[in-house]
Automatic annotation (TrEMBL):
Protein name, entry field: Tail fiber protein
Species: Thalassomonas viridans
UniProt xrefs under InterPro entries: Phage_tail_collar_dom (IPR011083), Phage_tail_collar_dom_sf (IPR037053)
Domain Phage tail collar as annotated: residue spans: 86-146
Keywords, in A-Z order: Membrane, Transmembrane, Transmembrane helix
Stretches that traverse the bilayer: 6-29
Record lineage: Bacteria, Pseudomonadati, Pseudomonadota, Gammaproteobacteria, Alteromonadales
Length: 254
C-alpha cells in the first residue's frame, strides 16, 4: 500500500527530529565532558590557592585581635584607670608587649627610667634593690602561679610580694597488715668440773646441758594505690595555661 504524502512527510519529519536530537545530545555530552575537565583543573589549581588565602586571612584576623587587645590596654592606660604595678597575663607575642609595660622575667630596671615602678618594688621588696639603690630587680614570674593574699591561709609574716616554695600537704596512707619475725635458738652443754678425791673417796663431778628457742614475728605491709604507672614527676600542679606576666611600668605608654 502506497503511503500518502502526509504520511511520508511525517516519517521524514520524525527522522529529522531523531537525527537532530542525537546531534543535540552529542553536543550536550561534549559540553559536560568539557565542564568536568575544567572542574578537575580548577580543583587542582585553585583549591591550594584558596586554602592559602584562608590561612592568610586567619593569620590576619589573629593579628588584628592581638592589635585590638594592645590598643584596649593602651587606651585604659591613657585614661589613668590602670595603676603602675598592675600585673596582667598576656598571650600576645613577647615582641608585641604594649608600651609602658614590662615582662616580669627578673629583669633589672633603673630608677631614672621607671621611677614609679622602682618606688613600688623597692618598698615592697627591699632585697630587690641593687647597685647602690639606682636599680631594682623585677619579680621573675616565669613558671609561677599567682596567689591571692588573705583568707588566713598564710602565716602572719606573709605579705604581698613574697615568694612561696612548693610543698605537698599532709596526708595519710592506710596499712592493711602488720607482721614481724625474730628467731633465736641455743643448744649446748657445760663442760662441768671434777675433783680428784683423797684415797678411798669417790670421784666427784658436775655437768650441765640444755637447749632452747625463742621466736618473734613482726613486720609492716601497706596497701597503697598509685594511679600513675610512670615514674614520679618533678612537681605537683593543677591544670594550667601558659602566658606572659607583664606589669604596668609607667603612667604613660612611652
Amino acid at each position: 500500500m502506497a503511503l500518502s504524502k502526509i504520511e511520508l512527510g511525517a516519517i521524514v519529519a520524525l527522522g529529522t527530529s531523531i537525527v537532530t536530537g542525537a546531534f543535540v545530545f552529542g553536543q550536550l555530552f561534549s559540553k559536560v565532558e568539557v565542564l568536568e575537565s575544567r572542574l578537575s583543573q580548577y580543583e587542582q589549581q585553585s583549591l591550594p590557592a584558596i586554602k592559602m588565602e584562608i590561612d592568610t586571612k586567619r593569620e590576619e584576623l589573629l593579628a588584628s585581635i592581638r592589635e585590638e587587645r594592645v590598643k584596649a590596654i593602651e587606651f585604659l592606660s591613657k585614661s589613668g584607670e590602670i595603676p603602675v604595678g598592675s600585673v596582667f597575663p598576656y598571650i600576645g607575642k613577647e615582641s608585641s608587649i604594649p608600651g609602658g609595660y614590662l615582662l616580669l622575667n627578673g629583669q633589672t630596671i633603673s630608677k631614672s627610667d621607671f621611677p614609679e615602678l622602682f618606688s613600688l618594688i623597692s618598698t615592697l621588696i627591699p632585697s630587690a634593690i641593687d647597685n647602690g639603690g639606682s636599680f631594682v630587680q623585677l619579680p621573675d614570674l616565669r613558671g609561677k602561679f599567682l596567689r591571692g593574699w588573705g583568707k588566713k591561709v598564710d602565716n602572719s609574716t606573709t605579705k604581698v610580694g613574697d615568694f612561696q616554695s612548693s610543698q605537698v600537704g599532709g596526708h595519710i596512707h592506710s596499712y592493711s597488715r602488720i607482721t614481724a619475725f625474730y628467731g633465736h635458738n641455743y643448744s649446748g652443754a657445760d663442760m662441768g668440773w671434777a675433783s680428784v678425791p683423797k684415797s678411798g673417796e669417790a670421784l666427784r663431778h658436775s655437768g650441765e646441758g640444755g637447749d632452747g628457742s625463742n621466736k618473734y614475728r613482726s613486720g609492716v605491709r601497706a596497701a597503697i594505690e598509685n594511679t600513675e604507672p610512670m615514674s614520679a614527676k618533678l612537681e605537683t600542679r593543677p591544670e594550667n595555661f601558659t602566658v606572659f606576666y607583664i606589669v604596668k611600668a609607667k603612667a604613660s605608654n612611652k
